[in-house]
Design a protein that fits this description.
The structure holds 2 protein chains of 2 kinds.
Chain A: H1 5-13, E1 17-21, H2 30-40, E2 44-48, H3 50-53, E3 77-80, H4 87-96, E4 101-104, H5 111-119, E5 123-125, H6 130-138
Parallel strand pairs in A: 1-2, 1-3, 3-4, 4-5
Chain B: H1 8-14, H2 41-48, H3 63-76, E1 80-84, H4 87-98, E2 104-108, H5 113-122, E3 129-133, H6 138-144, E4 149-155, H7 167-176, E5 181-184, H8 189-192, E6 202-206, E7 220-224, H9 236-239, H10 250-254, H11 258-271, H12 277-287, H13 290-309, E8 314-318, H14 328-334, E9 337-338, E10 341-342, E11 347-352, H15 355-365, E12 370-371, E13 381-383, H16 395-400, E14 407-411, H17 417-431
Helix pairs in contact in B: 1-3, 3-12, 4-11, 6-7, 15-17
The chains are: A alpha/beta, B alpha/beta.
Chain lengths: 157, 433
């Protein structure tokens, strides 16, 4: 699983739209924290959660979809906040809609989905938080005294 | 492909700081500010909700202090760190975040006096109990654990007893009971010893000592490993909604740096023992040369120990770097070696022949060795614990604390070794003349 700093920076810098599967509308849930952070850092968030899609409830000001196939626009990263055993069908849909990266959050690890995404030419990340990685590599996480692993003589970009 | 694992000499200079985004400044700017502007009301709300990372007020976080936190976290191989105004403050941040009324701590018996007082007097006032045990016996820690025990506490190299714990063995004892091991790593510094690699969960530093290194600046740092399972049922403060921070569940939200975030947002924020940015900068300046200094401190201290061992006016020498020290094999396992010789830091103790009176005369006879109670300075420091730090105790109590009447503590500095040996020798001549 290549998820070194160079790879993660490339994924995050080349992406604009993040479909967040399992996004909660409750402000204190980790999925809401992460999606709001990414939205504030310039990414388009596309909520995917059948619970809200049926009622037409927007989350973070964006229309919520029942699944990835219902989105109907280009998606760069599919960010998965679901149990590990539920990831495989999401990976299949991610490939079908032409997403460029399957991203399984911290605690979400489905090796079969990872292999499937890779075989289809997608980038694949497991067991990492998209918000924490963005903050680690593009500034922000060092605010909290976290060991980012970044050693460099260049200004942050 | 994986990221390069940088060596401590590189981390000591680079970790936690890249050139400033706004100015390109290569050296770390001192952000001498109390507060930070919000971009909008929504930005302010996100910051207060911890949904976005950023500074609000320097009692909680400051960019200069954050560079110190990350650097020490990196040097310790930890996930995150929290700085505070002194080493004692770092200890208070760790214990007051971890413990509540009715809890109990099992602690090494030969701790720094300030730590003994915090545990046995100050925290006792809040209904927290402590049992002190023989630090050299891991089974003594195991035997003292009670149902309400919530932490094991020890020093990697005791001050001034120079007692070591077998960190891996005590960590196993702690983890078997679902408890974290807290290790004060002040005396070895992260260059000589990394307790987290041996199993410790929280590491404390009085940055005042070897990290800052020049006797100028107070500071403390707490590091968390990121590996402790806080959801094992014993630490509801980590897993339940925080009444002190509008319902945030720290472990679920921040994962492997949840303990530092909780210590920052609940404990540091409320008790206020924040480190000043100017002090953080001074400590970081010191850390850049930490590996070089620790090598020389250790080499000089070993030379002093060998000199004292053969000196006719010296009764005994306690320095774990000496091959005949009872814990020398443990030292070799837990500490970094230089050219095959395990380094034991700069602290040693010895007895002047002639008892307490001779000890006092030795202190008064020194020419450039300074009589004071700090350690980890570039200067060689000497003290006579029986008549200073421990003078309120009677002789029996002093012996229980590892303080003998003739005991002199030396924090060996970075002066030329020949000059240090000369000053020790001439002071010994005066003391026993």
């Amino acid at each position: 699983m290549p998820d070194d700093i160079r790879t993660l920076r490339r994924i995050l810098k080349s992406s604009r739209t993040i479909a967040v599967v399992g996004l909660s509308a409750q402000w204190h849930r980790p999925s809401f924290f992460a999606a709001k952070y990414m939205q504030q850092h310039g990414y388009r968030i596309v909520p995917v959660n059948p619970r809200y899609a049926a009622d037409g409830v927007p989350v973070l000001g964006e229309r919520c979809h029942a699944d990835l196939l219902a989105i109907g626009e280009r998606v760069d990263i599919v960010d998965v906040f679901r149990r590990s055993e539920d990831v495989l069908p999401i990976a299949r849909q991610a490939i079908e809609i032409g997403a460029r990266c399957l991203w399984q959050q911290i605690g979400v690890v489905n090796a079969e989905a990872d292999a499937l995404a890779r075989a289809a030419g997608l980038d694949s990340v497991m067991d990492r938080c998209v918000k924490i990685e963005h903050a680690r590599l593009f500034g922000g996480l060092n605010w909290a005294g976290v060991n980012t692993g970044v050693i460099s003589a260049r200004r942050p970009v | 492909m994986s990221d390069r694992r940088f060596q401590p000499e590189t981390l000591a200079i680079h970790a936690g700081q890249i050139p400033d985004a706004a100015t390109g400044s290569r050296a770390l700017p001192i952000y001498q500010t109390t507060s930070y502007v919000f971009d909008s009301a929504d930005h302010a709300a996100s910051l207060f909700n911890l949904q976005t990372f950023g500074n609000v007020y320097s009692r909680l976080s400051n960019p200069t202090v954050a560079a110190l936190e990350e650097r020490v976290a990196a040097l310790e191989g930890g996930r995150a760190a929290l700085a505070s105004a002194s080493g004692m403050a770092a200890e208070a941040m760790a214990l007051m975040t971890l413990l509540q009324q009715g809890d109990h701590v099992v602690a090494a018996g030969a701790l720094y006096g300030g730590s003994v007082t915090m545990l046995s007097v100050n925290l006792a006032r809040f209904g927290i109990g402590v049992s002190f045990v023989d630090a050299t016996r891991p089974e003594a820690f195991a035997a003292a654990i009670r149902p309400n025990t919530r932490a094991l506490f020890a020093e990697s190299l005791g001050n001034p007893s120079l007692t070591m714990i077998d960190i891996a063995a005590v960590a196993d004892v702690a983890h078997a009971q679902g408890l974290p091991l807290i290790v004060d790593n002040t005396v070895p510094s992260p260059y000589l010893c990394n307790p987290i690699a041996l199993g410790a969960d929280i590491v404390l530093h009085a940055a005042t000592k070897y990290l800052a290194g020049h006797g100028t600046t107070l500071g403390g740092v707490m590091v968390e490993s990121g590996k402790f399972p806080w959801d094992n049922g014993k630490f509801p403060g980590m897993t339940e909604p925080s009444p002190g921070y509008h319902g945030v569940r720290f472990y679920e939200t921040f994962g492997d740096f949840g303990f530092c975030m909780r210590a920052r947002m609940e404990t540091l924020r409320v008790y206020g023992a924040a480190l000043s940015p100017a002090s953080a900068w001074q400590i970081l300046q010191g850390i850049e040369t930490l590996p070089l200094r620790m090598e020389r401190h250790s080499r000089n201290a070993l030379a002093v120990a060998r000199f004292l061992q053969t000196h006719p006016r010296v009764g005994w020498v306690n320095y774990p770097g000496l091959p005949d020290h009872p814990q020398h094999a443990l030292l070799a396992r837990q500490m970094r070696a230089l050219d095959g010789v395990p380094m034991a830091s700069g602290l040693l103790a010895f007895g002047v022949r002639g008892g307490a009176e001779a000890g006092v005369k030795f202190i008064e006879g020194a020419q450039f060795m300074s009589h004071l109670v700090n350690i980890g300075d570039t200067r060689t420091l000497i003290s006579h614990p029986a008549t200073t730090t421990h003078r309120q105790l009677d002789e029996a109590q002093q012996r229980a604390a590892g303080v003998l009447p003739d005991m002199v503590r030396i924090s060996v500095g970075l002066e030329h070794i020949d000059d240090i040996l000369w000053d020790i020798d001439q002071a010994l001549q005066r003391a026993t003349a």
